[in-house]
């Protein structure tokens, strides 16, 4: 080391000064003495200077090394600390709640925590839950109680909110039409004077503590059926409690799971027993693994918006499905919403937020594109991706179903997708969980996408943001589908529970989704998977038609008696279908059978397969279908006329 | 009087000298203790105590990760270099006890291991166990580059590097991610503001100065110095790969800014062209890689990558560069076999060689051969009808990896200089009309081919 060098010199010097004194005594010669002294002084000076220099040098060297060691490795982006809203120690919050026909807002201490003045959106009762100790927003919901069953959801939600939380209500547009007594009583029990008498187009605001005091309530009655009540503005003060009585609700051993749960429960409200200390709802499920799971390495993309309670329900069912691999799941959230992200983190999954692009359908479509691209980027060696939405329940044998059928998608070029959803699979029209169909329509709602299809065909020409198209409608267009088909099960492996959505409302859901059949049997062994291949399927259909009994075409097909009271038989009926796109009779038949009639779904070359009274029921369109040849010449295809007056479908 | 004065001065100086001496000793000791043995290792590097510390730390680390079932493999260049010398022997006797500590005791500050991200589940328990064993650890996270190219996706940050420190030795665990283009990527090591800059001497790390791209290695389980560890099957080729593994990310942010100014062409023609260009590039890469010919994105294709991270839809061809020293006579037959017939061949191997292959529907693949001079690199051009020669000059460059439309390909590391040489300072402005003889800013007239050579140097099919 360099640092050592001068030291011997310094040591030698001390010796020398002693030696000089000795020499001085000995010789006593003035001139020599003087010379020696000057020399010694000079030498000492040099030593000191060298020493000082050395110290400076080492210090600089050390400093430089320290500087250098990290210079190259500095992150070019300084981590800008996001300024947090200062949590004031104030004990009193000023709360403003506004209710009117076209706008609602809630402001807490001058900060707007809710503002909705969008047209044709956000109708119903808006509910906000505040933490009684900090004043932070823990939940924000809107229940469209103009539509049926939303009040039940609200009651469920209110029951899940912990005691002591601050609840704020406000109505936008209309919130009373389907607000039943049960819900009104719950509101009354919270301290509302007005709730039991809320009526058509009344405006209403209310703030109170669950199981405690009422902070204020305002109400404006609608003077006539055609007009709304006057806007009301409630201004009140809320006293914060010093300690959050419920912060320690999540206890248990200090595991990763407990940590996640604790974090979740300190932030959000409305998830019931997830946050209760005694016997909380599990957040890890450990379903049985699948033997020979062919979809273990297939990434799962969950497409989500801002419906965190839906997402919560969805992820619970997904993580309970046998053969699920949580590591392959990514939740894509459209927008920087916190609560869905909290839900994702509660389950220890990875979530990605997406800045919304465009509006309405195009926004959903852009979100889909970004999510699919990201999925294949994150899992570059995946050949497929499972695409799910946040408002689906996933069947316990979802992955088992895919594992048994996915090889078809890999090998059969004529396939477009595998979907877990049968558009025509209602309680009264689906029967056999082991049965699969080939259909020309793409059902979506839980499906598998081939990477090559996405990368080579769909991604490059995906609708751009300015085109307000539905992604699924676009995918169903002949330019994209190119005659390929999807494989679906008879009994759906997913269940669409979403009531609130872009194209969804309570009526629509009740009419078309509620009675959908959903498989709950684990480990269903699929039947005859190989017969789903392109050519084998034709053989299979011909065999089926060959053994099918022709129904009595003189009867009304809408009547229950049209199908005999048997079980396990195969019946066929023939309807009129002039050309490939002639679905006049089919649509009428679908309507009276109470299955999907808004557009044509579930067909395969002019053939529909469903179940009636536990019998396999085939419908063949004559003469457009190639299976028309199976029609006995004596039978006249049934023709059903559309009603003269067009009924507006509630799509 | 004078004498006393002098004596006093003398004494004072002696005293100062003594004080300085003491201070120096103290300072040196302080400096040493702070360096945490790194100086000692040099001074006493040969002492067995230090050597076995390294071995012990590695052993402890391997024990830790094997109890957590984490499949790491050794990528330490120093040790792999030593291992490579004895590779035959190590391969032939995978279980033999070693007489001396030959590899893991070699003097160094770190031992580097690799981990492929998808092969383990990020577990907090690993770090708890590591702490219990006495390890201090540091995790370096950053943005996920696989989502960087995506509009407005905010991914979670991913772990890029881990450093486990025990006593005077540290384990550097590099996390590799699989990316589109079938390769492994590791990120650069960048310290965030509040990271302890002195945790280890970061500059001495072998990985992390830049991001890197690697092929998926074949692994071999060996026993060296009585430790079972996975190593790349061929350490020498791994080390070779490592020496030029630097990876450049596409400039997604700038590309987005570019598309703000000049919206992307989303017409069907553009979509179709991009699709064809992509498959042509994939085919060309496959063909050249199988021949072992190193190539890079050149001209318009390179500009497309650098400026917009995509194929320029009106560019009408795919351009590649190859150093003339890598030229192989098999190139033409190999492309013909791949279904790409030769369209024209200009120049000869000694001068201005340029090959052009015909892809599907008018999409052309141009391969320009580059000639290295002392202070620049150039490639040539030939005008078919006049036999005129042109020369395009470039400043010297080296090659880096990047990812482009689902491929791991080379680009010049000094991309900006390369592009500015070719397209001038206004390369950011899209030009639809481009004349290869006059538009490039680095073009030089280079005479005319002698007429008797024309048959050879101007071949058009």
What labels would you give this structure?
heterodimer; A: 651 residues; alpha+beta; Spore Coat Polysaccharide Biosynthesis Protein SpsA, Chain A; 3 domains; 8-stranded mixed β-sheet; 24 strands; extended; disordered N terminus; B: 461 residues; Beta Polymerase, domain 2; 13 helices
Molecular structure report:
- With 651 residues, chain A is of the alpha+beta class.
- Chain A folds into three domains: 92-239, no CATH class; 300-529, Spore Coat Polysaccharide Biosynthesis Protein SpsA, Chain A (Alpha-Beta Complex); 533-630, no CATH class.
- Helices cover 31% and strands 21% of the residues of chain A.
- Chain A contains 15 helices and 24 strands.
- In chain A, the strands form five sheets. In chain A, strands 12-11-10-13-17-15-18-16 form an eight-stranded mixed sheet, sandwiched between helices. In chain A, strands 5-4-6-7-8 form a five-stranded antiparallel sheet, covered by helices on one side.
- In chain A, helix 1 runs antiparallel to helix 2, helix 5 packs antiparallel against helix 7 (338-346) and helix 6 runs parallel beside helix 7.
- Chain B has two domains: 48-245, no CATH class; 252-460, Beta Polymerase, domain 2 (2-Layer Sandwich), CATH 3.30.460.
- Chain B has 13 helices and 22 strands.
- Chain B has helices spanning 2-35, 38-43, 48-67, 77-85, 87-92, 124-132, 235-243, 252-261, 268-291, 299-308, 331-337, 415-423, 454-457; strands spanning 72-74, 110-116, 136-142, 153-154, 158-166, 169-179, 183-186, 211-214, 219-224, 227-232, 246-247, 296-297, 317-323, 342-348, 351-358, 364-372, 377-382, 388-394, 399-404, 407-412, 443-448, 458-460.
- The radius of gyration of chain B is 29 Å and the shape is globular.
- The N and C termini of chain B lie far apart (108 Å).
- At the A-B interface, helix 1, helix 2, strand 12 and helix 8 of A face helix 1, strand 4 and helix 9 of B.
- Strand 12 of chain A pairs antiparallel with strand 4 (153-154) of chain B.
């Amino acid at each position: 080391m360099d640092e050592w060098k001068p030291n011997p010199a310094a040591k030698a010097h001390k010796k020398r000064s002693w030696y000089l004194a000795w020499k001085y005594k000995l010789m006593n010669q003035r001139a020599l003495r003087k010379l020696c002294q000057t020399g010694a002084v000079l030498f000492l000076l040099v030593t000191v200077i060298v020493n000082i220099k050395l110290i400076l040098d080492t210090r600089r060297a050390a400093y430089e090394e320290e500087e250098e060691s990290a210079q190259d490795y500095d992150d070019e982006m300084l981590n800008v600390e996001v300024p947090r809203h200062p949590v004031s120690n104030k004990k009193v919050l000023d709360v403003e709640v506004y209710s009117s026909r076209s706008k609602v807002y809630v402001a807490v201490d001058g900060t707007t925590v809710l503002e909705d003045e969008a047209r044709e959106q956000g109708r119903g009762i808006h509910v906000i839950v505040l933490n009684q100790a900090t004043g932070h927003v823990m939940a924000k919901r809107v229940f469209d109680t103009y539509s049926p069953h939303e009040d039940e959801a609200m009651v469920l939600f209110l029951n899940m909110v912990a005691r002591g939380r601050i609840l704020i209500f406000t109505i936008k547009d209309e919130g009373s039409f389907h607000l039943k007594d049960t819900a009104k009583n719950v509101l009354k029990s919270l301290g509302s004077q007005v709730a039991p008498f809320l009526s058509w187009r009344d405006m209403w605001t209310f703030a109170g503590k669950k199981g405690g005091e009422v902070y204020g309530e305002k109400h404006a009655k609608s003077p006539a059926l055609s007009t709304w009540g006057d806007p009301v503005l409630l201004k009140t003060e809320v006293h914060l409690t010093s300690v959050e009585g419920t912060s320690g609700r999540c206890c248990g051993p200090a595991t990763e799971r407990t940590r996640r749960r604790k974090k979740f429960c300190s932030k959000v409200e409305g998830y019931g027993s997830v946050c209760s200390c005694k016997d909380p709802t599990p957040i890890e499920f450990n379903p049985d693994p699948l033997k020979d799971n062919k979809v273990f390495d297939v990434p799962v993309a969950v497409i989500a918006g801002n419906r965190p309670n839906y997402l919560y329900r969805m992820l619970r069912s997904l993580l309970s499905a046998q053969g699920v691999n949580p590591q392959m799941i990514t939740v894509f959230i459209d927008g920087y919403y916190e609560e869905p992200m909290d839900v994702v983190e509660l389950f220890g999954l990875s979530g990605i937020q997406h800045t919304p692009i465009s509006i309405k359908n195009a926004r959903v479509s852009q979100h889909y594109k970004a999510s699919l691209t990201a999925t294949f980027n994150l899992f570059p060696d995946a050949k497929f991706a499972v695409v799910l939405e946040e408002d689906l329940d996933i069947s316990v044998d979802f992955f088992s179903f895919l594992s048994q059928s996915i090889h078809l998608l890999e090998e059969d070029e004529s396939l477009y997708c595998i979907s877990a959803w049968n558009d025509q699979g209602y309680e009264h029209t689906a029967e056999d969980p082991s049965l699969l169909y080939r259909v020309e329509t793409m059902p979506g709602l839980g499906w598998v996408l081939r990477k090559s299809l996405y990368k080579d065909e769909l991604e490059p020409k995906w609708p751009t943001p300015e085109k307000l198209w539905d992604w699924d409608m676009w995918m169903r267009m002949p330019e994209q589908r190119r005659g390929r088909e999807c494989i679906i099960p008879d009994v759906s492996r997913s269940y669409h529970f979403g009531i609130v959505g872009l194209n969804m409302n309570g009526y629509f859901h009740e009419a078309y989704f509620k009675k959908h059949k959903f498989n709950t049997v684990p480990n269903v062994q699929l039947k005859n998977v190989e017969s789903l291949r392109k050519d084998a399927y034709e053989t299979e259909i011909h065999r089926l038609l060959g053994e099918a009994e022709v129904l009595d075409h003189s009867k009304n097909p809408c009547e229950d008696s049209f199908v005999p009271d048997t079980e396990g038989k195969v019946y066929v009926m023939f309807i009129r279908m002039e050309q490939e796109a002639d679905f006049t009779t089919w649509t009428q038949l679908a309507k009276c059978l109470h299955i999907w009639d808004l557009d044509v779904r579930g067909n395969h070359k002019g053939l529909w397969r469903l179940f009636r009274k536990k019998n396999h029921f085939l419908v063949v369109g004559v003469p457009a279908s190639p299976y028309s040849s199976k029609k006995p010449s004596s039978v006249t295809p049934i023709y059903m006329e559309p009603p003269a007056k067009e009924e507006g479908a509630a799509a | 009087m004078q004498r006393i004065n002098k004596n006093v001065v003398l004494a004072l100086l002696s005293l100062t000298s003594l004080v300085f001496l003491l201070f120096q000793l103290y300072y040196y000791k302080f400096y040493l203790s702070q360096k945490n043995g790194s100086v000692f290792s040099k001074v006493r590097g040969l002492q067995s105590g230090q050597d076995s510390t390294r071995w012990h730390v590695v052993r402890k680390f391997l024990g830790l990760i094997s109890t957590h079932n984490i499949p790491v493999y050794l990528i330490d260049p120093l040790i792999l270099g030593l291992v490579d010398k004895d590779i035959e022997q190590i391969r032939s006797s995978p279980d033999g006890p070693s007489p001396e500590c030959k590899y893991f005791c070699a003097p160094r500050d770190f031992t580097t291991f690799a981990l492929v991200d998808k092969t383990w589940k990020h577990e907090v328990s690993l770090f708890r166990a590591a702490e219990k064993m006495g390890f201090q650890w540091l995790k370096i996270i950053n943005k996920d580059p696989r989502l960087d190219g995506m509009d407005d996706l905010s991914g979670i940050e991913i772990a890029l590097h881990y450093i486990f420190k025990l006593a005077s030795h540290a384990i550097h665990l590099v996390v590799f991610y699989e990316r589109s283009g079938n390769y492994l990527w590791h990120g650069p090591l960048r310290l965030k503001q509040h990271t302890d800059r002195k945790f280890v001497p970061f500059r001495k790390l072998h990985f992390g100065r830049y991001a890197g791209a690697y092929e998926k290695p074949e692994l071999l389980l060996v026993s060296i110095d009585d430790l079972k560890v996975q190593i790349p099957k061929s350490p020498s080729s791994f080390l070779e790969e490592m020496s030029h593994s630097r990876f450049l990310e596409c400039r997604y942010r700038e590309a987005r800014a570019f598309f703000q100014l000049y919206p992307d062409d989303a017409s069907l023609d553009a979509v179709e062209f991009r699709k064809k260009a992509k498959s042509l590039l994939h085919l060309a890469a496959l063909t050249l890689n199988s021949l072992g010919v190193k190539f890079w994105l050149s001209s318009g294709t390179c500009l497309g990558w650098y400026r917009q991270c995509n194929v320029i839809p009106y560019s009408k061809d795919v351009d590649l560069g190859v150093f003339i020293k890598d030229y192989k006579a098999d190139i033409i037959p190999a492309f013909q076999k791949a279904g790409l017939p030769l369209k024209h061949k200009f120049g000869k191997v000694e001068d201005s060689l340029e090959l052009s292959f015909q892809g599907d529907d008018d999409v052309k693949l141009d391969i320009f051969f580059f000639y290295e001079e002392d202070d620049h690199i150039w490639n040539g051009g030939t005008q078919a009808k006049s036999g005129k020669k042109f020369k395009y000059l470039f400043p010297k460059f080296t090659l880096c990896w990047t990812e482009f439309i689902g491929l791991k390909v080379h680009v010049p590391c000094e991309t900006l200089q390369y592009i500015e040489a070719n397209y001038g300072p206004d390369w950011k402005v899209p030009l639809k009309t481009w004349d290869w003889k006059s538009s490039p800013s680095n073009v030089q007239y280079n005479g005319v081919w002698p007429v008797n050579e024309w048959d050879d140097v101007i071949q058009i099919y």
